[in-house]
Write a structure and sequence with these properties.
The structure holds two protein chains of two kinds. Chain A is α/β, with parallel strands linked by helices. Chain A has two domains: 5-45 and 187-386; 53-171, abc type-2 transporter like domain (abc type-2 transporter like fold), CATH 3.40.1710.10. Helix content of chain A is 66%, strand content 8%. Chain A has helices at residues 5-22, 24-44, 64-75, 88-96, 110-115, 131-159, 164-171, 188-218, 222-228, 233-262, 271-295, 299-316, 328-334, 338-351, 360-368, 372-386; strands at residues 53-59, 79-84, 102-106, 122-127, 174-181. Chain A is elongated and about 95 Å long. The two termini of chain A are 38 Å apart. By secondary structure, chain B is α/β, with parallel strands linked by helices. Chain B contains 15 helices and five strands. Chain B is elongated, with a radius of gyration of 31 Å. The chains are: A alpha/beta, B alpha/beta. At the A-B interface, helix 2, helix 4, strand 4, helix 6 and helix 7 of A face helix 2, strand 4, helix 6, helix 7 and strand 5 of B. Strand 5 of chain A pairs parallel with strand 4 (125-132) of chain B.
């Protein structure tokens, strides 16, 4: 009796659902891992910026002026003065032990010298082995130094009979007004989680796709699987991966909802462009997974390929260190990562709300990842029919 | 049997297990990938990705509403910094924003029409800087370049406005309190110098987990009764098994550590203020903790390939929880407790302090103690795992032989 294609695909999908529910590892890697990661990263960074980062103060002046300065510094959101040391050496030791991320040093006779116009110098040190903490503290300690200069300059100028606007024109002739487009709070959670969480989903899709197909070869069930499809690899893959697509899309869209609904991250474009991007990311990653096991039809090699590719994606996508600053061959390589294109869509749509005109090519590229399995079809089919499991 | 005999037999068995474990590792190409290929190739790949360390010449569009000699000079100053490259002069903001939309630039500098007149009359003027936030490093570049240029250029303009005052006086009026900032332990402010040390330490733990769990999973698939321990007279003591296996791993990983923690940082010019003795003393408990932790985990893995699905994604979480990227100080509550369950957290904190900041064991005493405590705890759990497995395989063996008799 000749079965219709639809029937065959449906039967293979049912077979796959039985396999998925038989092994808890599928539930773990398809649902738990991505959602747990989402929970982890969102709650870890729920303040947006690290606050109250500890610093040490070396106050060699110890006047009311210097104490006022320290109080003001302590009042900043990112800075907390937790240690006072008598010497710089002590403070440095504290920094090496990791208990502080910055040192603010006020020189001896600071207040007296400042009043006399003798230009005493303030120094501050940041621990840039921790880049985020270092740059946040740099900002606060620099601001307080500029303010200190301002208040002294104001006193001196007023004494000379200058007006306040004249003095400000002298102290800071050109001020800079910064506008951070799309993310005015410089929120790290927005900056990182928009890509890290989909990145983990992509990694798990690679792994699960390779694992489920590779396991057919390992357990010797691949011939039976192909037979059910009437020896058509396309139908076999469609039927097998359809349940995955449903589960991963559901998880993916939950992530989209967590990012833009629950956490209210910037979504200038409205929902549709990001929902489409997520659906395409899932499909592209699945296709990439088929490609991986097609190229290396040994379970462990396929999984190693998937792990490597999935992990490198976090760096080569360029959301922390820009792709344009990497070596040209790496720039070209970055195009092969679905997450890279998802990131470019996110920047245009959710973050900046640009017209689709600037972004549509990225959607097309993401969609065209689905053609990848075509290149390995013959190799994969041969593996499914004739390969024996090699541990 | 006297005590001496037990000790002698124990040592012999330990050596036997050590030898056969090494054999298993070298015969298993999957494990070889984790124990050799990944630790050797991965750090190099990451080193290459981040080798340029800093972003240079971030593309900037300028909208100059003033268009005078002084505004052009100000732009020239900004363009002259290594951080920024002015790629286009737009006539208005719409045109500039279009350049951003096309990704030809990532920031806009807008100079007001009263820029020149303000400066020449001693009034404060404000320029606007717009930055695309897709990558924080661009924003940083624009801000640094604009701040430096505005400070230097502004100072000169003020001094030229007051030629009557002496140079010294002029300096004091402009800059009554100078300040200096020092970026410690990562003077170039490089991205690679900051993230790579953490990745290096993490690679050691993760490859050990993956390799040892794969060995465990394979043993489960191959052994009769699907237990971790084979039926062999050499494998009947917990301590022998755990010590014999650990010995095999630690010998391989001493080599790996030399490559990952000493040669790779030197290869990529990362900050390296390291004292080899200190590093060696610190890495020892880290390796022990990682190995016993991995052996413990291997008790819960029943198939050869499952570890990759279970543990690869944790690398991302562990990197963030280790307190390098997101400061440890801001990791609180449950996540902090979870962080210290993994050897990598104390490992990363300690290695960064020793390698990048030149700390001695005194400064990293806390991390050092944590690692030894983990070594102790995970040694006990590793033994429990094998104790359970030995008892289980004996029971199954007994049951099996009874069944045989009944037949």
């Amino acid at each position: 009796m000749q079965q219709s294609s639809k029937n065959r695909i449906w039967n293979i999908a049912k077979r796959e659902m039985r396999q998925l529910s038989a092994r808890p590892i599928y539930l773990f890697s398809m649902v738990f891992a991505p959602l747990f990661s989402a929970l982890f990263f969102i709650t870890l960074m729920d303040e947006g910026l690290p606050t109250e980062l500890p610093i040490a103060v070396v106050d060699l002046d110890n006047s009311s002026t210097s104490r006022g300065l320290i109080r003001q510094l302590d009042a900043f959101g990112q800075t907390a003065v937790t240690v006072r040391t008598a010497s710089f050496e002590e403070a440095r030791k504290e920094m090496q032990s990791g208990s502080i991320y910055g040192i603010y040093r006020i020189p001896k006779d600071f207040a007296t010298l400042a009043a006399q116009g003798k230009q005493p110098k303030l120094s501050f040190y940041t621990n840039n082995a921790s880049l985020i903490a270092g740059s946040l503290l740099f900002r606060d300690m620099k601001t307080i130094s500029v303010l200190a200069g301002g208040s002294v300059g104001l006193q001196v100028g007023l004494a000379k009979g200058q007006t306040e606007s004249q003095i400000m024109g002298q102290l800071q002739p050109i001020s800079i007004d910064t506008v951070t487009l799309g993310n005015p709070w410089l929120n790290y959670s927005v900056y990182l989680n928009n890509i890290i969480i989909p990145g983990i989903l992509q990694l798990m899709i690679f792994l699960v796709t390779v694992f489920s197909i590779g396991n057919e070869i390992k357990l010797g069930t691949s011939r039976d699987w192909l037979q059910q499809s009437g020896n058509s690899l396309l139908k076999a893959l469609l039927g097998k991966l359809l349940p995955h697509t449903v589960i991963f899309t559901t998880v993916g869209l939950s992530i989209t909802y967590i990012l833009y609904g629950v956490s209210s991250f910037p979504l200038q474009s409205g929902w549709l462009p990001m929902v489409a991007a997520m659906v395409l990311l899932v499909l592209a990653a699945q296709a990439m997974g088929v490609f991986m096991i097609g190229v290396l039809p040994t379970l462990r090699l396929g999984l190693s390929f998937a792990s490597l590719f999935g992990m490198v994606a976090f760096s080569i996508t360029g959301f922390t260190f820009p792709v344009k600053a990497m070596y040209p061959p790496l720039q070209a390589l970055s195009e092969l990562f679905p997450l890279r294109h998802y990131f470019l869509i996110y920047v245009d749509q959710a973050l900046n709300g640009r017209a689709l005109y600037y972004t549509w090519t990225e959607y097309v590229i993401l969609a065209s990842f689905m053609l990848l399995p075509l290149f390995v079809g013959r190799n994969l089919k041969r593996a499914l029919l004739y390969f024996n499991y090699i541990p | 049997m006297n005590l001496l005999h037990i000790i002698k037999e124990g040592i012999q068995d330990t050596c036997y297990i050590w030898k056969s474990e090494l054999n298993l590792i070298f015969k298993d190409s999957g494990v070889m990938i984790f124990f050799f290929l990944v630790p050797f190739a991965y750090p190099v790949l990451y080193g290459l990705i981040y080798n340029n360390e800093v972003v240079r010449e971030a593309q900037l569009v300028v909208v100059d509403h003033c268009d005078t000699q002084s505004s052009r000079e100000f732009i020239r100053r900004i363009n002259g910094t290594p951080d920024v490259d002015v790629v286009y002069y737009a006539n208005n903001m719409d045109e500039a924003k279009d350049r951003l939309d096309r990704k030809e630039a990532y920031g806009i500098l807008e100079i007001p029409s009263n820029f020149s007149s303000d400066i020449h009359t001693g009034k404060r003027t404000t320029v606007s800087l717009y930055s695309d936030m897709s990558c924080l490093l661009y924003y940083k570049n624009y801000l640094i370049a604009a701040t430096e240029a505005s400070f230097d250029f502004g100072k000169e303009m003020v001094q030229s406005l007051h030629p009557s005052t002496t140079r010294e006086e002029g300096k004091i009026a402009v800059n009554p309190i100078p300040y200096e900032s020092v970026a410690m332990f990562n003077p170039a402010n490089g991205f690679g110098s900051f993230i790579l040390p953490a990745i290096l330490i993490l690679v050691i733990q993760q490859t050990l987990i993956l390799g040892i769990c794969m060995l465990g999973g394979t043993a489960r698939e191959k052994n009769r009764f699907h237990t971790l321990v084979p039926i062999s007279k050499h494998y009947h003591g917990t301590l022998r098994i755990v010590l014999g296996k650990s010995l095999a791993y630690i010998i391989l990983y001493i080599l790996t550590c030399c490559w990952v923690l000493i040669i790779v940082p030197a290869l990529f010019d990362l900050p390296q203020h390291v004292d080899i003795g200190t590093l060696g003393l610190f890495v020892l408990p880290y390796l022990f903790a990682c190995i016993f932790f991995s052996i413990t985990l291997s008790g819960f893995v029943i198939s050869r390939e499952a570890p990759m699905l279970l543990f690869v994604f944790t690398s991302v979480i562990l990197l963030f929880i280790s307190g390098v990227s997101w400061p440890m100080h801001s990791i609180n509550g449950f996540w902090r407790i979870l962080a210290y369950a993994f050897p990598s957290t104390a490992g990363v904190q300690g290695f960064v302090a020793i390698n990048s900041m030149g700390a001695t064991l005194n400064e990293v005493a806390f991390e050092y103690h944590v690692l030894w405590i983990q070594t102790g705890v995970y040694f006990i759990t590793a033994c429990l795992v094998y104790r359970y497995q030995i008892i289980r395989s004996r029971k199954l063996l007994l049951k099996g032989s009874e069944l045989m008799k009944q037949k």
